[in-house]
Amino acid sequence: MALHKFGEYLRLMYRTFAIPDRWSEFFRQTFREIYKLGVDSVWIVLFISVFIGAVLTIQVSLNIKSPIIPNFTVGYITREVILLEFSSSIVCLILAGKVGSNVASELGTMRVTEQIDALEMMGVNSANYLILPKIAAFIVFIPVLVIFSMFAGIMGGYFIGWATDIITVSKYELGIQFWFRPEYIGYSIEKSIVFAFIIVSIAAYFGYNVKGGALQVGKASTDSVVLSSVMILASDLVMTQLMLG
To answer: How far is CA 167 from CA 31, 52, 73, 170, 199, in A?
Structure first.
């Protein structure tokens, strides 16, 4: 059964990545999807990142208090966690719920209301027309979300240093500058691009292949979020070993 579903997924992706019949329509759809899937997700990424950065700073400072560990280590650890894992992996897990459910429910609704069937009757490659702009849009915009998340997370830690006596701002700034490796930003962006493809393609598969009514659309949305989350975690493990091992 799993092998059969994987084969269906590959066939759908083969149809999706065909050359668009009308490039102008493809770009128009892509820009619409950038706003719907990407720009509309900025607020939740910023909100969560600020609080996670603040919580990380508090947790690290409380757990490494030692006369032999310099205070700036708090900023250093906070920066490393945000750059290496949070802003790519955890943010994409969060977006799997928002973006993935959105894509699956939209395509599922189009399937049960026979809009996709109508496109096929008109000779349109519905997979290419509906899914490719979503994949392209989210892949293009995910680096922006990751960079915003990095900035907001680090600023959350900065706010804790400014508002409390847990760590001084100067020590925190020293920590986030200490032994900074710019390639970690590129590493996170590369991971997030893979995760973006996983989120949209899996959600599109479940939504596109819905059979039934509204209840099945909801189930497809839930299944897409669960499977996307599992695949993101598995891919994160493999990519971390390959890129940093």
So the answer is: 43, 16, 10, 8, 38
For 28-66, give one letter per residue: b (16+ CB within 10 A) or e. Answer: ebbeebbebbbeebeeebbebbbebbbebbbebbeeeee
pLDDT tens digits for range 39-91: 999 999 999 999 999 999 999 888 887 778 788 888 899 999 999 999 999 99
Separation CA 202–CA 153 (nearest Å): 28
Using CA atoms, how far apart are residues 152 and 154, in angstroms rounded to an integer? 6
Q: Is the pLDDT of residue 165 over 90?
A: no
Whether this prediction's pTM lies above 0.85 is answered by yes
Q: H helices then E strands: how many in the chain?
A: 11, 0
